């Protein structure tokens, strides 16, 4: 029996799309058992007539143009909305039951119904034609935008098993975009060991030495104009994409804030790699943990920020044990991954010389964030005072700035402590004594005396 596509304007877009997909799979199964009586490809071309089945689904993926791509996207989406979808079609078309290995599909740990694999796509799009089944593999190659933009891909399989037997992984942000109309942020965890950095501050809140500010301005210049280099016929062959920067200096001197402000200015998401989640004692796990971040970041044009980078990018050692061998392999992997990243990557460390020399040579800029001098500390004290309180005659910011070598973060902590003391006394006047108590607490953290 021939079907016509369901195009009821009164049904939801998703229901309509699922109905279309059900018809396609049903027709493919019928064609599989009687190809001579029912030419599937001819029918499919007539039904599409050069257009996607459902524009509401397709519009969420800008490069989605070919009907095959729409079918693959829908096959990957089905388990997220209709768990028994595939089984119900097979049972309807094959009421006598039996194993239908040609359809592909696997079972998951928690999901009790069938999950589609690359072999499922091959069956639906190509049937038993070897030539057409080989062509289908292009949609899961690194050259296709599905993979390049981290939309969907095949789960790796054990060595020796067919590549196309891997299940189709549809990125969660794509699922949310299609089903909920919004893109969700990735969930922090072992599979994605990175957290987004945001800030409510602006560039006026950042106090840096002139040399440091000028070098930060170079990053801004690259972000504004790097696409012109990529478009230059000569330079694009010779200059690798991406920009790699090392921020080094004591904690609290503005490294993380600078990264956040750059992202804020250019409306780019900044993700801080959590080293406690990345570094693993198990061989190969560190690379695996990082790869999930790199892959996602490349398709989203994120700014990656590695704090305490020497834990990951430290100096290679002489090989004296198997552990040293694999540690050096991790560094070699990171070297290649850092060099290939097409966006802005910032590494931060307290000490420049803790990093492997091979990494430092690959940086476009090495920027020092020193302890602020007396004048800079005075400006920081000024910028940190609350708007809701007044300073009484005892407050002497010149004295505080001149006497105590504090970072911007420590100054802000000291001010916060003093403000809380004012609130506790139910007064609106900030006092020098409270600021000094806040300074002492900050110095005690560093085992220094006031």
Q: How far is the first residue's CA from the last residue's CA?
A: 89 Å
Number of strands: 12
User: Please, how many helices?
Assistant: 21
Dominant shape: elongated
Q: Enumerate the spans where pLDDT stays under 50 for 5 or more consecutive residues.
A: 1-11, 317-324
Q: What percentage of residues falls in helices of 4 or more residues? A: 40-55%
Radius of gyration: 29 Å
Beta-strand portion reads 5-15%
Features:
12 strands; alpha/beta; 49% helix; disordered N terminus; 21 helices; elongated; 450 residues
Give a topology summary.
Layout: H1 13-33, H2 40-48, H3 55-58, H4 67-77, H5 85-93, E1 106-107, E2 114-115, H6 118-126, H7 130-136, H8 145-148, E3 152-154, E4 168-170, H9 172-180, E5 194-197, H10 210-231, H11 235-238, E6 243-248, H12 255-266, E7 270-273, H13 275-278, H14 285-300, E8 303-306, H15 310-313, H16 322-340, E9 344-349, H17 357-361, E10 365-368, H18 374-384, E11 390-391, H19 397-403, H20 408-425, E12 429-430, H21 432-445
Parallel strand pairs: 6-9, 6-10, 7-8, 8-9, 11-12
Antiparallel strand pairs: 1-2, 3-4, 5-7
Helix pairs in contact: 1-5, 6-7, 18-19, 18-20, 20-21
